[in-house]
Amino acid sequence: MKKLWISILVVLVAFPMIFQSSVKAATPISIIIDGVRLSTDQAPVMVNGRTMVPLRAIFEAFNASIKWDQKAQTVTATKDNTTIMLKIGSKTATINNKAVTLDVPGLNLKGRTMVPTRFVSEALGHEVGWNPKTQVVTITTSASNVGNAGPVSNIVAQDVSDFGDGRDLQVSFTRAVNESLVDHYRVLIVKSGNILNLSSAQAVASYNYSTVLPTGTNPSIKLTSISRTVDGDSIKNNQAYVAYILTVGKGSNTSVLSIGSSSITLVNKTVTAINNVQVNDISDYGDGRDLSVSFNKLSDESKISSYRIFVVKANNYSNFNLTTANNVSSANSTLVSKTGNNITQILSSGSKDTDGALLKTGVNYRVFVMAMDNSNAANNVLSSVSSAITLTNIGVSNITVSDVSNYNDGRDLRVSFTHATDETYISQYRIMVVPTSYYSSFSLAEANNVTNANYTAASTNGTSTSLTLSSSARDVRGALIKNGVSYKVYILSIGSGSNSGGNVLSNASSVITLIYDSSVSTVFNLSVSDVYDYGDGRDLRVSFTHATDETYISQYRILVVPTSYYGSFDLYAANNVVSGNYTAVSTSGSSTNQVLYSSTRDVLGDLIKSGSSYRVYVLSVGSGGYSDSNELSSASPIVTLFNNSSLKAVTNLNVSDVNDYGDGRDLQVSFNHATDETYINQYRIMVVPTSDYSSFSLSDANNVSSANYTSVSTSGSSTSQVLDSSARDVRGKLIKAGISYKVYVLSAGNGNYAGPNAISGESSAITLSANKSPVISVTNVTYREDNGRILISFDKSANESNISEYRVLVVPSKQGFGTADALAVNSSYYSSVTPNGTNPSTFTATRDVNGNSIVKGIKYKVYVLAVANNSGMQNGGLSNSTEEFELSSGRDGRD
After folding, report:
1. Pairing of β 773-774 and β 872-873
2. Low-confidence residues of the chain, pLDDT below 50?
3. What is the pLDDT of residues 368-393, one digit of tens each?
4. What is the pairing mode between strands 136-140 and 30-33?
5. Which residues are CB-neighbours of 202 under 8 A, at least 6 positions away?
6. In 209-305, at which residue ranges do the beta strands (DSSP E only) sit?
7. Phi/psi class of residue 60: alpha, beta or left (left: φ > 0; alpha: ψ in -120 to 50)?
8. 360 near 352, Cβ under 8 Å?
């Protein structure tokens, strides 16, 4: 008896292990009923070669009623005239009370009652198929076999383009076995993870599927930009999808849903667009060799083969697009190999624009760059357009250098050159002194990187420049210029306007080494004063202390220099002044205190007179063997001679940066009025770019146009004036941030003194800064249509602190539109929304930006403009547009 119980116990322990070994854990099994995958909470399993499925899932799929007897462990299912009864663990079942034998009995698995799929299906009159390779059980119900062409098969979804919408998705499949029963196929796109069955597939709205007609061949359809998922969402990149095909029968024939395709996620193969296309005029050949094009490579170049550069005449660029670019002849573009790095390409002498004309000076161009996919032109990517550029000849010529003094600094070096023949696009010249030890490696790239402390700026005034450098002048390495060092000099022409950034470097000058000769020395303590009112040289007194050692000095020469000539006056110029244009003084005594004569002339040969501003120099003239070793003193202070109650200049001139508008409203000018304003009509505030400082004088001030200064009345004893937004500098350019200025105040005479005006000393230099943060655009601008109305919503800006309002703008899609256009829209033609820290509610738009009603027949886009308040800068703020749309209902545009 004891042995019997032990045997029973062994069998009980071994039985579950035997059962477990019979349940295969192989590839997951799928149950497909009439083309629809059966969803179960317990996966089907294979037991002794038979597929077991949860009883409730299979019977409910067949619309059978179920009764479960927990005590007897028996399930009874009824469908139409068929009743099936199974007992868990028993190989005997009944169909309409008739006993049948099962290959595998029902069983419990993880709390679920599992029944054999084939027995249940065939007992209810359905056909069962098994594919051991794919582990798929296919069940065809008796209802589907009546007038049913059967489901399609072999559904394949592919990513074929890079538009970021339905055009990227292509679906192909094997047609139904009997197409004579098929009216059409419906291509249904479902987000991966969502379940689609026959009833839900038949309920999908017509605008959310694509229709394919039977043709007797296996279909392949590429979807469109407006194709949508069964949920009505646009198809887009970075979303996984599954494709189903609904076979729709003719007449009373039934519809069948296929199984789903493999999941596919659309990806934009070219990753990003080309950006930062820059153009520069770098030479003076008068052809394509003058044009340098640079751009940032694609972040992923694996899908492209090369780049093409297109040079387009500026008046044609707005019509240039990807289609146009693809059709341009290879002879009219420049092919550039991908290098793995950002690219800079200098074009060739034979380079042509897209019209086939050779590139040349004087023509305004814009440039595009296209990334090429030679295997699929649909993947080509076109950059945004570059700034405009006009190639010009902007190089200087005739550079000469000379040693003119003995200061042992930059004042010993005089540089002369002829300006470029066309200065339309030149803002200034930069004189660069290069030690010859560095000469071999000096280039345009290095010249562009020299800091402003290490070059001397020269204006574009006149046709040539002859300039003695200053005592603080430095070479391009930052070292002070000095004797005993060999140098070469270059001139960098700085491009402006459409040629901004297109700088040109001259050839080098001859080598010069500055030498110091101390035999002849200069005078010191030079001073000047206005002592009379004759209106000529007798009004000017000049005093100075003689040189300490006059052994090699034959005489002194007093040189009166108009301040308009001051910037270019040096020893070289002093040595060339003719005898009638200076006053000679002997070396007798230790000092000179000389009032000049009525006939005294300035160095240019003009009689000295009231109302003109001068500086005075004294030239020590060498004697004997030192006759070629003259020395020039430093300049005196400026003196302006006046008659009688001569006009006085203002004092205590100060400037400050007080706002952040990026224009004249940022600049505050304060000064004390002249002590005697009897003969002063007004004061004129003149803002001078520091690049013009060396040549700005009373004569220049008198010639400044009234539009280029700010008038101030003589009321009160002082002025503190903030300029306005339209204020301009003396050259007529609007005042703006990022440019260095100095300010002068001109006392303008009245009555008999309307001519001899007085100019103040210069202010300290000031560069206006713009510290305000730009406004941040809104995002996710969307629209929807409701009975002919446009309902708009958007997500607020990430920072609303510097925004006063949002403007919602409906724009005809053919109309060009940017930030400047948005700001100019009449307030009656947009909707205004006040920021309140939350996303605005959806609201209705009825008019476009031109004031016209929104109607059918016209395509529109919607923008939202974030408008800056006083603490923000309107540097952008315009959102991306919505996609193009057209009303499907409402008034027609012809009404």
Report:
1. parallel
2. 1-25, 145-146, 270-271, 644-645, 893-895
3. 999 888 776 767 888 889 999 988 76
4. parallel
5. 246, 255
6. 210-212, 220-222, 240-249, 256-257, 264-265, 275-281, 291-296
7. alpha
8. no
Token readout for 792 is 């708009």
pLDDT of residue 252: 65
Rounded-to-integer distance, Cα 246 and Cα 276, Å: 48
* Beta bridge pairs of residue 489: 433
Cα angle, residue 63 at apex, residues 59 and 69 outer, rounded to 5°: 45
Radius of gyration in angstroms for the set of CA atoms belonging to the chain, rounded to a whole number: 45
Q: What are phi and psi of 180, to 5 degrees?
A: -65, -20
Report CA torsion sign: 104, 106, 108, 109.
positive
Residue 652's nearest CA partner among 632, 672, 633, 668 is: 672
CB 52 within 8 A of CB 113: no
Which letter does DSSP use for residue 590 in this model? S
The three-point CA angle 702-704-709 to 5° equals: 110
Number of C-beta neighbours around residue 217 at 10 A: 8
Structure tokens at 282: 């770098």
DSSP assignments along 53-71, one per residue: EEHHHHHHHTT-EEEEETT
CA 40 to each of CA 29, 54, 111, 138: distance values in angstroms, whole numbers, following the listed order: 11, 7, 13, 15
d(CA 790, CA 810): 9
pTM: 0.29
Closest CA to 559 of 538, 533, 585: 585
Residue with tokens 């934009």: 268
The alpha carbon torsion through 860, 864, 867, 868 (nearest 10 deg) reads -130
Cα separation of the two ends of the chain:
104
CA distances from 386 to 169, 367, 704 (A): 33, 5, 36
Residue 748 burial by CB count (10 A; 0-12/13-18/19+): exposed, middle or buried? buried
Which of 567, 656, 647, 562 lies closest to 606, judged by CA?
Answer: 562
Which tokens sit at 185? 């196929």
* Nearest by Cα to 126 from 247, 256, 33, 253: 33
Quote the pLDDT of residue 269: 59
The 3-state DSSP class for residue 166 equals: helix
Host H or E run for residue 444: helix 444-448
Residue whose entry in the numeric block shows the structure tokens 């069955």? 197
Evaluated on CA atoms 403, 406, 408, 412, the torsion sign reads negative
SS3 category, 342: coil
Distance of CA 11 to the CA centre of its chain: 79
CA 677 – CA 876 distance, rounded (Å): 48
Residue 697 DSSP SS3: coil
Element (H, E) at 698: helix 698-702
Distance between CA 584 and CA 621 in Å, rounded?
Answer: 10
Paired tokens of 212: 């394919």
Residue pair 653/761 in contact by the 8 Å Cβ criterion = yes
